[in-house]
């Protein structure tokens, strides 16, 4: 299963791309790239502020960081949901983009033949309930562009048997786009490649320096 998961950077890029595509401000887009730094990489909000020089970016990342992983899944999820109930719109947009990308990653694994329960940390019913709880918070608040991706992916996850893969890479002729196609390992999907052709490539491409 590990080799079928897209490179981790692509999750960060997809989250940031969704935020930029919804015309969120630069601080929110930057937080999209960095949203796991506190939760998964051991940073504190203060350390992230010092290293980035942007207190607001660090604050946004802290908002969407789940509690310590020594707590039960149920407890962490409960704390996260309560935090999102109190969150401002920019935080909800960041959270929604993150969870939309998570859902789309799940659909990509289903596309590759995996059963849903084979890659969930808890049962399907609990996961669906979590996403439905978040859906109630995102709906009518988050940018329609981001929310539509979230709600569409959630609907497909609820009924994987009816899911028809849409992440198909078209044949592209330009060398730069072909390089981009290889970089995303045919995981991100047609809409991101189309966005690249329209000029969003620099947001998604890693630096060559």
List strands and helices in order, with pairings.
Blueprint: H1 8-21, H2 26-34, H3 37-41, H4 45-52, H5 55-63, H6 73-85, H7 89-111, H8 124-138, H9 144-158, H10 175-183, H11 190-204
Quickly list its features.
mainly alpha, globular
E-strand count: 0
Shape: globular
Structural class: mainly alpha
Q: Uncertain runs with pLDDT below 50, 5 residues or more? A: 166-190, 199-209
Q: Count helical runs.
A: 11
Q: If you compute it from the alpha carbons, what radius of gyration comes out, rounded to the nearest whole angstrom?
A: 17 Å
Proportion of beta-strand residues: under 5%
Helix content: 55-70%
SSE pattern: HHHHHHHHHHH
Give the end-to-end Cα distance, rounded to a whole number of Å: 31 Å
Biggest sheet character: none
Quote the average pLDDT: 79
What does this structure look like?
By secondary structure, the chain is mainly alpha-helical. It contains 11 helices and no strands. α1 (8-21) packs across α11 (190-204), α2 (26-34) packs across α5 and α7 packs antiparallel against α8 (124-138). The protein is globular and about 45 Å long.
Provide a concise account of the structure shown.
With 209 residues, the protein is an all-alpha fold. It has 11 helices and no strands.
């Amino acid at each position: 299963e590990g080799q079928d998961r897209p490179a981790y950077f692509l999750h960060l890029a997809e989250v940031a791309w969704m935020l930029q595509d919804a015309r969120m401000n630069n601080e929110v887009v930057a937080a999209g790239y960095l949203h796991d730094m506190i939760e998964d990489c051991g940073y504190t909000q203060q350390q992230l502020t010092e290293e980035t020089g942007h207190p607001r970016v660090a604050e946004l990342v802290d908002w969407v960081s789940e509690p310590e992983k020594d707590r039960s899944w149920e407890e962490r999820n409960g704390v996260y949901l309560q935090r999102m109930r109190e969150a401002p719109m920019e935080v909800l947009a960041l959270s929604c983009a993150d969870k939309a990308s998570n859902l789309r990653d799940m659909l990509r694994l289903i596309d590759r033949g995996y059963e849903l329960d084979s890659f969930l940390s808890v049962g399907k019913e609990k996961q669906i309930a979590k996403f439905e709880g978040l859906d109630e918070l995102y709906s009518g608040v988050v940018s329609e562009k981001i929310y539509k991706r979230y709600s569409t992916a959630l609907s497909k996850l609820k009924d994987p048997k009816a899911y028809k893969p849409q992440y198909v890479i078209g044949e592209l002729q330009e060398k730069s786009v072909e390089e981009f196609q290889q970089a995303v390992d045919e995981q991100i999907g047609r809409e991101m490649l189309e966005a690249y052709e329209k000029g969003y490539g620099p947001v998604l491409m890693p630096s060559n320096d």
